[in-house]
Give the backbone structure.
Amino acid sequence: MEEECLKLLIDLHKNGKRQGPGGDEETNKMIELAGLKQNERLKIADIGCGTGVASIFLANQLNANITAVDFLPEFIDVLEQTTKSEGLSNNIKTLVCSMDSLPFDDEEYDVLWSEGAIYNIGFERGVNEWKRFLKQDGLLILSEITWLTEDRPAEIQNHWDSEYPEIDTASAKIRVLEKAGYSPIAYFVLPKNCWLDNYYRPMEKRFSDLLERHGNSQSAQSVVEAEKKEIDLYERYKKYFSYGVYIAKKVR
Ligand code: SAH
């Protein structure tokens, strides 16, 4: 991606509570379905944490030692400020690092958490490469863009075929998990408020400030236009895709 465009995207997204679809209620549902308990001392990695919405929620709900990783230092800086202001610095350690070269030890973690991020290296590659960081019986808890139906209109099919050809149905994703040595524990679909109320509507409110900060530049306008196009596609085709949440146990 062009340097200027990446800078603009960072500027647009670093002020958001979340950098992708999700919700506190849904994060809580993941905790419950995974059977994570407050009285367990858990070691968790949040991979592709963004500004850390999940890490902060987990730190507040659980007795966990969390490593929050993202390759964008701008997002990690925001998370650092939040952990300080919320008194969570002992619970959350941050790391600027790419998810394809994580410096973790084998069997270091009880839980690998990743919301809306694994697509950056691809689901199949990610679940296979990350598995060694999990303890035996450790849990992988992640969200991944997923087809909700067997057939889709051509426009949305073509869009995702070019954006992320690994998008697939839940059954296909679960098959990938099983082949990689995980056993599925739970699956659910992020409801539309996770996209609209929690992600797109707050983002839309930041468009005018972004344009103003960048003197209404051509590049700022095209970043906003691209986001608007994504929102429009979601609104028209939300029956056909969402983030699926996958919870799976490492069994071999
Ligand atoms: N989990 C957060 C952020 C999701 S957006 C949330 O739900 O709000 C995806 C995140 O993945 C972004 O923060 C982006 O910077 C990060 N990312 C993209 N490619 C990455 C890579 N190769 N290594 C680490 N993080 C990456």
